[in-house]
Request: fold
Amino acid sequence: MALITKSVKGTQDALPKDIHKLQYIEGVILDKVTSHGYKEIRVPVFEHTELFQRGVGDTTDVVQKEMYTFDDKGGRSITLRPEGTAGVVRSFLEHGLFNEPLPQKLCYFISCYRYEKPQSGRLREFHQFGCECLGTASPAADAELIAMVSGIFDELGISDLHLEINSIGCPKCRKHYHEALKEYFSARKDELCPTCLGRLERNPMRILDCKSPICSEIAKGAPKVTDFLCEECRDHFEKTKKYLDAMDITYTVNPSIVRGLDYYTKTVFEFVSDKIGAQGTVCGGGRYDGLVEEIGGPSTPSLGFAMGIERLLMVMEAQGAEFPEVAPCNIFLASMGDEANIKSAQLAKELRSIGVAAEFDIVGRSVKAQMKYANKLGAEYTAVIGESELDSGKVKVKNMKTGAETELGIDENFDDSFLQLVFADSFATGE
Ligand code: ATP
Ligand code: MG
Reply:
């Protein structure tokens, strides 16, 4: 009984009272990335399980422990997307977008699903905004992407996020690094958690990303990836930093960032807050030069990022950020009697067609109750239409803030005269 009125553990609702915050954040983000040439792509919530095994990597926590996987009624193994990149790359290949001018700059707002232990900043259904820039190997692209994310946070007025960058090299330099890691961790084999013990052979870099306190303590003393970069990767990293410096982007190099997903190469980065507790990474991303090929496409060096919308909201709320709110009701047209109610329906339609948020009584309340409701809505103006207004063709429109009343004709161009009144009032108050 109680179950059906309670959301599933690790999921949450976004309620109408908070929705303006999300809409504001989404608007700012979309404006910013559009100015960088990104176009939205919408992909399915679920994909073939194999896509994530290949794309995210089967030595990752996400694939090993966190996926919502099930067989559908046709016997296919299906997985609810734990992240966005794999699905977008699948779509890029399926629709031959690699034949379009490159780079393809794609962005998305999505829900993601991971079976994790729910806690502050960690949900089982959460939301991401992500971008993928497919088809460029240049460090200029790394810097453009990072600067764009930084620009989003600036635009949202977020001050307490810091940027950490690293390079985790390419498969060539990774080989030597893996050997060094194997040697280091093998010496402390007995202390590693069972999952990391399994990773020691197949992907020792994953141990650096383990959340268990003992493994992460051991990882602190591990060899640093930046000491193993080949010349090309080192050069790429240096150039990326040069671009960032030129664009005035502040960062620190943190050699322990490896990111949780297998597909990353060269540049990786995170935007981290220390104001929202242990789950402080708001945005993570980097280069994934081998992923498109891994999924069966042509060699397509690429990069991207994803930011967690719930964590972003937490950072903004912790900082006391302002979220502009659109007035839910510009004018409430109260009415007395059936005929007046029909007139207010007509007027509301007229006003709405020019973008005014207009309301009238659709409940059948008394005028007094209608006015009470208008107040609760926060109506900026009200008007009461009764028999005498219908006869005279005129109604008094009241500015609820100043109390001033202005008579407007209701038989013709009510929408225009209302707009003029609003402009005159806002001019008078300097708003
Ligand atoms: P974490 O280290 O916090 O587990 P991650 O490396 O698994 O993060 P990514 O896969 O890079 O995260 O996802 C990008 C962003 O999505 C994260 O930086 C975070 O803001 C958000 N995110 C990831 N997992 C969750 C979750 N379970 N609940 C809420 N937000 C999440
Ligand atoms: Mg994670």
Notes: The mean pLDDT is 95. Residues 260 surround magnesium ion (ligand 2) (CB under 6 Å). The longest strand covers residues 104-113.
